[in-house]
# Entry
Amino acid sequence: MSAVEPPLALLAEVTHRCPLQCPYCSNPLALERPANEMATADWLRAIAEAAELGCLQVHFSGGEPTARRDLEQLVAGATAAGLYTNLITSGVGWDARRLTALIEAGLEHVQLSFQDSGADIGERIGGYQGAHAKKLAAAKTVREAGLPLTANFVVHRQNLHHLPEMLDMAVTLGAHRAEIANVQYYGWALKNRAALMPSRAQLDEMTAAVAEARKRLEGILVIDYVVPDYYARRPKSCMGGWGRRFLNISPSGRVLPCHAAESIEGMAFDNVRQRSLVDIWRGSEAFNRFRGTAWMPEPCRSCDRKEIDWGGCRCQAFAITGDAARTDPACGLSDDHARLVDVAVTEADAGADGFIYRRYGAG
Ligand code: SF4
Ligand code: FES
# Structure
């Protein structure tokens, strides 16, 4: 294999504790208990190693990362190592004083998640009454502190009709960027797929609304749009390719090629407490398993897109077929694609609306 390029960014999932219980949470079903979380010193070492490896950015995520009382220390460590720092937060559980401390430690950007444009649906999805007002206050605090803000909206069948209101809200809050991300179905979201899956007609409507908003809000708001895989003709380049651009550290120190990698049964992941990050990135079996193109089956192996989408998503291939080494079923060339579309159409038509909430022990 040719020399392994350095990653761009580290996603530091510092805790799985969170006041919210979103049914599409990207955390694994087996949430990490607080007692297993890495100590401050281990996180600081891992962050310094990420910088040594060539990472440029660290995204502090969770759960809710501010649940860790030492977050300021971790941000300061990342800043000292020369990394750009971003906080990915629910906006619940912290105030202006905490944000000031984080900014003093070097925090440069905040990405704030919303479950909808209003409290009714948003609080039902997040499973937390009163969350919406706290999120609006958090956005105001971020902007008053002069930090750039990205508003993140995860969209699905139960809230996508509010897309125009979500974008208007992002503008009103002074966000520079809005991320409209359709649910990706692994882990908790896979469990709740029947309650979340949009129909193709809804998706087309949403895509048209995004195109219209991009024109209308040009120069005011940048809109990122992640389409749902189930109706795609070709898959996304998940994580920019396995082990190519990103790495993720779980609360207890397991180093993963993507946030959902632990959903793939039978794979073992090294822990940064036992092995250096540099060593894991370059030499671990898990990172090398689906790196590059040598592992690919047909039709990927002879496809001219294989170095564009890198065969799509390994976690989705596993979730749908039970084999992470198959072509992503989101690809129209995959033998499993028809099955995927069939599931989407059937579940969207059935219209279930009950959630299994993300909680310790519920997975
Ligand atoms: Fe991508 Fe493989 Fe589909 Fe080609 S066959 S478009 S490489 S997933
Ligand atoms: Fe794991 Fe796509 S989410 S490879």
In short: The pocket of iron/sulfur cluster (ligand 1) is lined by residues 234-235, 299-300, 303, 305-306, 309, 311-312, 327-328, 331, 333 (CB under 6 Å). The mean pLDDT is 95. The first helix runs from residue 40 to 53.
